[in-house]
């Protein structure tokens, strides 16, 4: 049997469901978003941190909570075949950031403002805006206890929405209080739900005594009346916790940031205290949360560090880009500036020299390449130029080159206008090619 016939029988390999390839032009949109985030983070004095994709499993069990959905159902965990360590692909980044801050004693000289960009992994049913591998962007302020830092982080997110052109996003706030206040609320929840045990579904019954706060997250329509009548965390806040929440609201009011106080907002991780918040939209169906976070003042100590406060948020890259598309905003990726049309192979050395000069000046330009039988017809090259989305064609015709010129032809304004430019002064006219978007 020939090698060719064996090859034809090989099964086609595909990506794992819910772990998607990001292809052009979508990859360019991701890069565009990341560039916006990096520029904005620099304005707010947040510095980038990069932590491993794989962490020890106990980090997430201790950090997120044993009875959270993530730990119970969604983590990709495995045993290291070399030493038997239990390892997990990170389902979220905050625990890893805190681990790094503790391990490297980063708070010895004061608080730190950090941000991250990278992939997370959760073993769940893939659906629109919710995948098994997904990119998150997050901001974490560690070592700061004041409500003004909660407000700063929220203002940072609001500034990002404005920079991206997003308008259909609303802010929801709540306060969970401090541990003793949470304990009092927890007992009140147990007492409340015990009275409606016949209405609780199996998941709620399982969590009633281990983590009753999670029952408030239920999407079961049959339980909504019981959940709506449940005790609220805000009713158990002490004077200091209430003052923290009121300070946050006052700062947001002063900055013209609209918000809704949602007493049922609790978030999915056990490490939160005091402020929790979400940015949501109605445009993405059931996956309407695009950014969420809150204060986690006890997580640093819980992961082995000296007690220190912290607050942060994370957003889903897929959901933000989906929302941009849903709102019908113009393409977020700047168009290609130019496409080089080369009628003759002999012109290639001069063409490449010219294109390198243009690229050095910041012009994005794609060159038509040769095939086994030459450069191809002018008609086919112009077709490729048009398909590339380039704003201009650069035509390196033999007659023009003999005169030390190149033709610059407009492809997008409908005029088809063209001018000749000097090949000895490429930098002099390069700026006319660059996109201003």
UniProtKB/TrEMBL annotation:
Q: What name has this protein been given in UniProt?
A: Histidine--tRNA ligase
Predominant localisation class: cytoplasm
Q: Name one GO biological process term.
A: histidyl-tRNA aminoacylation
Q: State the family it belongs to.
A: Belongs to the class-II aminoacyl-tRNA synthetase family.
Listed NCBIfam families: hisS (TIGR00442)
InterPro entries membership: aa-tRNA-synth_II (IPR006195), aa-tRNA-synth_II/BPL/LPL (IPR045864), Anticodon-bd (IPR004154), Anticodon-bd_dom_sf (IPR036621), His-tRNA-ligase (IPR015807), HisRS-like_core (IPR041715), HisRS/HisZ (IPR004516)
Alphabetized, the UniProt keywords read:
Aminoacyl-tRNA synthetase, ATP-binding, Cytoplasm, Ligase, Nucleotide-binding, Protein biosynthesis
Recorded GO CC terms:
cytoplasm
Binding sites annotated in the UniProt record for L-histidine: 92-94, 122, 136, 140, 267, 271-272
Quaternary data: Homodimer.
User: Which segments constitute the Aminoacyl-transfer RNA synthetases class-II family profile domain?
Assistant: 33-343
Localisation per UniProt entry: Cytoplasm
What Gene3D superfamilies does its record include? Answer: Anticodon-binding domain, Bira Bifunctional Protein, Domain 2
E.C. numbers: 6.1.1.21
Respond yes or no to whether keyword Protein biosynthesis is given for this record: yes
Task: Decide whether keyword Transmembrane helix is in the record.
Answer: no
């Amino acid at each position: 049997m020939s090698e060719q016939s064996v090859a034809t029988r090989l099964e086609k390999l595909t990506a794992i469901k819910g772990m998607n390839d990001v292809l052009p032009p979508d990859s360019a949109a991701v890069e565009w978003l990341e560039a916006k985030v990096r520029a904005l983070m620099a304005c707010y004095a947040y510095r980038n941190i990069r932590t491993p994709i794989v962490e020890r499993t106990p980090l997430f069990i201790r950090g997120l909570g044993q009875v959270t959905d993530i730990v119970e159902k969604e983590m990709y965990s495995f045993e290291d075949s070399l030493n038997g360590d239990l390892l997990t692909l990170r389902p979220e980044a905050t625990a890893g950031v805190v681990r790094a801050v503790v391990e490297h004693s980063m708070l010895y000289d004061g608080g730190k403002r950090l941000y991250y960009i990278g992939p997370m992994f959760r073993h769940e049913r893939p659906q629109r805006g919710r995948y098994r591998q997904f990119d998150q962007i997050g901001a974490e302020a560690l070592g700061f206890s004041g409500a003004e830092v909660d407000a700063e982080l929220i203002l940072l997110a609001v500034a990002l929405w404005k920079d991206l052109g997003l308008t259909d996003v609303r802010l929801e706030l709540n306060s969970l209080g401090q541990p003793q206040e949470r304990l009092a609320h927890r007992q009140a929840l147990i007492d409340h739900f015990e009275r409606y045990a016949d209405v609780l579904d199996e998941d709620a019954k399982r969590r009633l005594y281990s983590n009753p706060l999670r029952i408030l997250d239920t999407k079961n329509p049959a339980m909504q009346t019981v959940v709506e009548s449940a005790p609220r965390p805000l009713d158990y806040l002490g004077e200091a916790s209430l003052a923290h929440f009121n300070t946050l609201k006052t700062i947001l009011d002063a900055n013209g940031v609209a918000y809704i106080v949602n007493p049922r907002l609790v978030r999915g991780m056990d490490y939160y205290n005091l402020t929790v918040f979400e940015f949501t939209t109605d445009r993405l169906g059931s996956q309407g949360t695009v950014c969420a976070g809150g204060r986690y003042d006890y997580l640093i100590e819980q992961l082995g560090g000296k007690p220190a406060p912290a607050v942060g948020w994370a957003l889903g890259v897929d959901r933000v880009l989906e929302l941009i598309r849903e709102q019908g905003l113009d393409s977020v990726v700047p168009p290609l500036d130019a496409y080089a049309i080369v009628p003759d192979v002999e012109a290639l050395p001069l063409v490449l020299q010219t294109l390198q000069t243009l690229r050095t000046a910041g012009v994005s330009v794609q060159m038509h390449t040769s095939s086994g039988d030459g450069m191809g017809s002018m008609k086919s090259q112009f077709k490729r130029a048009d398909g590339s989305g380039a704003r201009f064609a650069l035509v390196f015709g033999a007659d023009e080159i003999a005169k030390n010129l190149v033709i610059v032809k407009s492809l997008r304004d409908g005029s088809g206008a063209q001018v000749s430019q000097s090949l000895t002064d490429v930098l002099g006219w390069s700026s006319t090619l660059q996109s201003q978007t």
